[in-house]
Amino acid sequence: MSERTLVLIKPDAVSRGLVGEILSRYERKGLALVAAELRTIDAATADVHYAEHVEKAFYPPLRDFVTSGPLLAAVLEGDQAIEVVRALNGATDARKAAAGTVRGDLALSNRENLVHGSDSAESAAREIALWFPKL
Ligand code: CMP
């Protein structure tokens, strides 16, 4: 079933010049780009996006990281897009992510892991409404 998911190509990917490489992996897989915008977010927006993590010990440095510079927010569409993007991204901890995945090939950090993908249909709906309210 075709569905939409929200992807963040995070500030580490933008500063390292990896946006094209990462977007191209999604496109080559067959996912369609529905919306994309380069944006620098403030702490309040980070807190809404990461609402489920705000109380966790790793959150303050995560908030500093995601607000540190521009990121590319995008909506991708395709058959099982949520699961497909998460498989392409690889495990959250890039040090443990499998080779062949975005994180496994291109990152070496649990925090600065290049990408975010919605983790469920509910998260995708919430995150797309937050980042792209006009969609
Ligand atoms: P993301 O998929 O965007 O979802 C939450 C983010 O928090 C995650 O990617 C990482 O960037 C970060 N994160 C999750 N767990 C940890 C952790 N244990 N230590 C540091 N950062 C983490």
| Count of beta strands | 4
> Under the CATH scheme, which class?
Alpha Beta
Mean pLDDT: 98
Secondary structure category: alpha+beta
- Beta-strand percentage? 15-25%
GO molecular function: ATP binding; metal ion binding; nucleoside diphosphate kinase activity
Keywords: ATP-binding, Cytoplasm, Kinase, Magnesium, Metal-binding, Nucleotide metabolism, Nucleotide-binding, Phosphoprotein, Transferase
InterPro entries: NDK-like_dom, NDK-like_dom_sf, Nucleoside_diP_kinase
GO cellular component, one term: cytoplasm
What does the model show?
The protein has helices at residues 11-15, 19-29, 43-49, 59-66, 81-89, 102-106, 121-131, and strands spanning 2-9, 32-39, 71-79, 115-117. It contains seven helices and four strands; from the N terminus they run E-H-H-E-H-H-E-H-H-E-H. The longest helix is centred in the N-terminal third of the chain and has 11 residues, at 19-29. 41% of the residues lie in helices and 21% in strands. The two termini are 19 Å apart. It has 135 residues and is α+β, with helices and mostly antiparallel strands. Adenosine-3',5'-cyclic-monophosphate is lined by residues 53, 58, 62, 92, 110-111, 113, 116. Adenosine-3',5'-cyclic-monophosphate binds at residues 53, 58, 62, 92, 110-111, 113, 116. The active site is at 116 (pros-phosphohistidine intermediate).
